[in-house]
Design brief:
Blueprint (H helix, E strand, L loop, with lengths): L5 H12 L9 E2 L2 H9 L4 E6 L4 H16 L5 E6 L5 H5 L7 E6 L2 E7 L4 H11 L1
Parallel strand pairs: 1-3, 2-3
Antiparallel strand pairs: 2-4, 4-5
Amino acid sequence: MMKLPAAVICLLAVLICAGFTNASAPMTLTDATFQTELEKGDTMMGFFWAPWCGPCRMIAPMLDELVEEYDGKLKIYKLNTDENPVIPVTYGVYSIPTLLFFKMGQVVDTVLGAQPKSKIANIIDHLM
């Protein structure tokens, strides 16, 4: 087992305590927080997923890339459908992965299943 130097351990502890998160990952929403974000009127994409879903895990890294590429232009959120069943039913999400695209608080496009990054980027570009 590899031992980390004390300075590295201290730095990791500081980052964890400071709430350091991966800036290039979709922000997590819940049933309680989804409407608040939607009401802001920002152009956003909701990624409806579950941890056991293979196709969801397959497209997750691509969504991390899109977060970086569209930073400041599009908000990308994820919502675990197992832990948050109300919002998916509200928006008719009955299969995962599902991507819902919102503009001014309204659904303007939907993508079902794992799709290539180019298809998703094309939809985002049309929203801008």
